[in-house]
């Protein structure tokens, strides 16, 4: 980079090409660049176009350059349809393994870049799923931190389940098993967790071996939220563990918050004006992230639960879900007319951070993806938890059983066990959870108080002198020292 100071650290970030992994990695890059580091972010043409608004709206506007290192994505070589450069663009989950194969094929161009770029990289930060980066780091004698997008509670639980072989001898995949090595009793079934590597034993082994060679872990959480789990994970791995989140809080202005994710299908001003007309804490926000595909009958049951609850709401429905004949027919029968001015349906993508940070929002129905949950925590908003797969069931247990800022809707099994056309939760359970969260008497008031307190702690963690700010300082110091001692 022209004019760069060779004494400053140069971080190379290698995210997993999936929204929930890529967006916080971009936020991390912005924070590092704002502190004076040189940052190169590895991506592909389609993904570069998607994340450019995140950078344009924040880092570049503040004069903080982040360099995109754009590699062609080897779709054809891995057996993927052209254009499938992100996990959420795959036609079906049957393409998951070819997708990870394609990502691993980026090793050669990455090594070439690392050898030739100036200033020389000081440190790599790579998604924990990108196990193949450990080989590149070893070849170039380059220190590497792994980046964990999920919460530390999930990471530690998965680590302990794997290391202690907690599921060995358990034939029923729905039988709850106690997670070893946690400060409290947490039970989870094989079907619920860890889930991501079910049938992926070879990749799982590679991921854990790659973790052993890392200098440490960077996690999108904050110490005050997960102190016990951060400390136990550091003990279990013998590595430095640096919570540096909530990374979403680097988006300080409305434009940056609105730019996270895809382009919104509704204007930020329109949403804000609608929320301005509602009572503080009265609105329920319903959104299930980018990867979840809700079955048509389940969409209808959610709507019926919202209607019978009598509560104001903003409900995000994906375009593919709304186009289903059953959903279109049901909506055409007068749902929007019956809910009137107290309901807003957003088709497509909504400016989630803008909505959650508005004082009118008092609850969030979430799929339990960690980015969404952490945004809710940062905004002091309690949650209704509706897990679907991957880390989401353990995320639910953290929020409901440990932090006590959530109400479970009652989902017990991953969505793919429900089957095509199935319903995991009916309208009555949806209504019951809404009433419990938004009213809930003394228990509900305690939940709201705890959520608000965690929101305040999140802001302090990211502010100068806070725990996450200081952990980022430690990361920069580590890379600076490596730069100073690097004679290559």
Automatic annotation (TrEMBL):
The entry's keywords: Glycosyltransferase, Transferase
One Pfam family cited in the UniProt record for this chain: Glyco_transf_N
Protein origin, superkingdom: Eukaryota
InterPro entries: Glyco_transf_N (IPR058980), UDP_glucos_trans (IPR002213), UDP_glycos_trans_CS (IPR035595)
GO molecular function: UDP-glucosyltransferase activity
PANTHER family xrefs: GLYCOSYLTRANSFERASE
Name of the molecule in the record: Glycosyltransferase
